[in-house]
Design goal:
The chain is α+β, with helices and mostly antiparallel strands. It has 17 helices and 19 strands. It has a five-stranded parallel β-sheet, with helices on both faces. Belongs to the FAD-dependent oxidoreductase 2 family. FRD/SDH subfamily.
Length: 669
Amino acid sequence: MKLDSKIPEGHISQKWTDYKDHLRLVAPNNRPKIDIIVVGTGLAGASAAASFAEMGYNVKAFCYQDSPRRAHSIAAQGGINAAKNYQNDGDSTFRLFYDTIKGGDYRAREANVHRLAEVSGNIIDQCVAQGVPFARDYGGMLDNRSFGGTQVQRTFYAAGQTGQQLLLGAYSALSRQIGLGRVDMYNRHEMLELVKVDGKARGIIARNLITGELERHSAHAVIIATGGYGNVYFLSTNAMGSNVTAGWKIHKQGALFANPCYVQIHPTCIPVHGTNQSKLTLMSESLRNSGRIWVPKKKEDSEAIRAGKLKPTQIPEEDRDYYLERKYPAFGNLVPRDVASRAGKEVCDEGRGIEANDTNEGVYLDFSTEIQNKGKQTAYAKGNHNPSQEEILTLGKKWLEEKYGNLFTMYQKITDENPYETPMKIYPAVHYTMGGVWVDYNLQSTIPGCFVAGEANFSDHGANRLGASALMQGLADGYFVLPYTVSNYLADDIRTGKISTDLPEFVAAENNVKDQINKFLSNNGSKTVDHFHKRLGHIMWNKVGMGRNEKGLTEAISEIAALKEEFYKDVYVPGSSDELNPELEKALRVADFIELGQLMAMDALQRKESCGGHFREEYQDSEGETLRDDENFSFVGAWENKGYDVTKSELHKEELKYEFIKIAARNYK
């Protein structure tokens, strides 16, 4: 199979504009003749569904939640990037493009990233028009803050709930189209199979999660926008229901799965507190604007803190190691996520972690310096040039509350500690997945008519995503890319007519799903689905996590193969198929996670280099930084499914060519 990325010719700054000018169109009078299925209603899915319906297409949208408002996009906290240069600090489309390529450790496709940077400003205008309440400065202009991996302020935000506000904006656009009858909304439905007719994606099999009924739905194109696969690790910052099933089903139907080993470990999550924990909580990267990350310099101080004999506020300044500021002075606490995460792991591996959990892993995110600085600034602004320490603390805490109040409240409710008084405890955790279904420049997979958007595809973030770029990509794909590229594809379908769900391909696909469901329900095993999911997560975190090596990856591949066999022999799924059955839902999802986990280990094993979130311990420089091999591994690794045995999957390579950016060693020092 030869991968054709369909990247247009021309200068990088003109590719997208020229390409759009020559795409085929579907006339308004022909659009009502065409059906589009959108699976997933987060930012990418909701924006795509609303856009296509507004254009006049017939849209069917599916989500497994009880409402599109509950998509995991709502959990995003810190902000959304856009190259508007409102802060007059030198930002530009090219700089956002460059920062994204560099942040991804030169493993992203150049043309897609530049397009993302180009349309970023339009996203902000769109969302403001929808009423998204972005933060504003004193003069009423939209405010910006910094995020990791950049030296400009380009992140637009709405307190610590940007994802929620953006999703409500997209949801309002979607709801309008539902009200007009242009979108049929299927809540509490899960896609369990893609249907291909004559090689093209022509529909899906979905399960009504309330009644258990299997339904056939046809369309002229299918868009997958179902998010990432971080829950393969069991513990992650993802919603408990987030899964890879839709993406994995189309992979098994012929769509290539690209760069599965590229997983982002977010540096600022609340540490694991116990073995029975089911998910982790993210504390926004925006907090690194105001917090300083440190651990004690002395191992004995860390031991005393873990034993409860010493408080962090009792550690004098000279005995604190602000390790990011020490190692990366040019960026300090705002280095990219992969760099910050590995540095946190490193100091904890040295025995200087501060959390009294099973692994003694945790570091501090301290706001005391910011409270002092902002307290003084606020007092001066009020005309008080000689404020007392008490006034400084009061004003500084009030400033922090206005910026991050909901995040501080959330942290205090979870940990029962006041972050205004005591430093936050944080530690890296699985957060985002840069890998995903391989797509070309049109966001079309290797299956004609099957498009993939947002986190579900691989296209824009390389080996490490910069903070505040996920929301940007999801909305860019849905509002400003897919409406052009999908219409170009659908120009051939204006005479196709309605696609019957009685075709033998639909019957066969439905029977495949029935067979899998019946096997689980008749298995009579002895162990729960969660039992196997936790074991998979343990293998993945320890051997395909922040640090990877050949021995561990080889072991992971064979251990997951054994786990897969045991899972199918001994999993117990109670209940029946014709009812609400959450355990059946989980079993179907974990079956896909197990296969994906094996492919992730295989992808990590073949990539004999370190880049971004993929850190192979054998490939690091003298200072412990990533050591890329641009000569041999400057490619996208896209895997083709070859059946039940994942180890038989075939690797295809898309060469990455950089014409407009000079590849260099990543340096944040």
